[in-house]
Amino acid sequence: MRPTVHDIAAAAGVSLATVDRVLNQRPGVRHVTREKVETAIRELGYVRDVAAANLAKGRTYPLVFILPASDNSFMHGLNAEIRQAIVRSSAERTDIRTIEVPAFDPAALVAVLEGLSREKPCGIALVATDAPDVRAAVDRLVRERFPIVTLVSDLTGSLRHHYAGVDNIAAGRTAARLLGRFLGPRKGEIAVLAGSMLVRDHRERLEGFTAVIAEEFPDLAILPVLEGRDDPEVAHRLVADALGNAGIIGVYSLGAGNRGLIRALKEKAVDRVLTVIAHELTAHTRAALIDNTIDAILNQDAGHEVRSAIRVLKAKADGLAVIEAQERIRLDIFLKDNLP
Question: In sequence order, what are the residues at sequence separation of 6 or more whose Cβ sits closer than 8 angstroms to the Cβ of residue 291?
């Protein structure tokens, strides 16, 4: 039989009320008494059913998701997954709200984080802009015992508890290998479209991409990165201008803004064959795969990322361990032949 709180009370020689205070980390228990209870817990092998305890107490977890405000199909999809999580709130005992901040704006993100420190939610998930001020704000919240999860884009060297996203260096390396293999013996230049080098996921994708091209495809030259701010109009203008260079034979879009990319490709590349690798499966990139404007899509599951962030924040709020294998976000590769 599994040990119970009654067994702990008997072994430690204390009341059930004292055991409850120790289990819930409440004050009012002498140090020597707390040690007796904790010793009994260890020796009996007691494992608390936190979910059942929280259900009995009617506990709800207030959680906040901080997202960039942008005309970005992937972020629209991420928002939709959070709305689905809100629909499940009563069953999962969560109270979720979203806050949007201007994309790639560290000061705006810091202001929101500082405001949340006064509200005291059970956990915060954020799409991070990798800047020193943001890192310092996150570290302050962690030291104040706020569970923090970075979502989609991580935060270099911070104290955040967990990152819910793909391995972006591996994603960049995968994109380079696909592009190099698709191009075969051709020689030429590669245009790279990013959102901003302020976000770690874009920097890491570029790092992985550049490393594999340099190591294994020396006949391909990477041009200076175009930063489209994940804005379709800006991306369209930058890519259209770049495609005036007849030496470009491949394009890697490592961020968002793919609607603008696709429009530029359809307008400017009709007279030559380009190999194009992009990120995130949306309605627009799906159509571009089908009509051969894009050759391959690397995709992260936004729904898995949102569900993972919620599980981790709840676990951290309860002082429970995270099951790392369950929270690993896979990288999918889609061609027109295996679209879901």
Answer: none
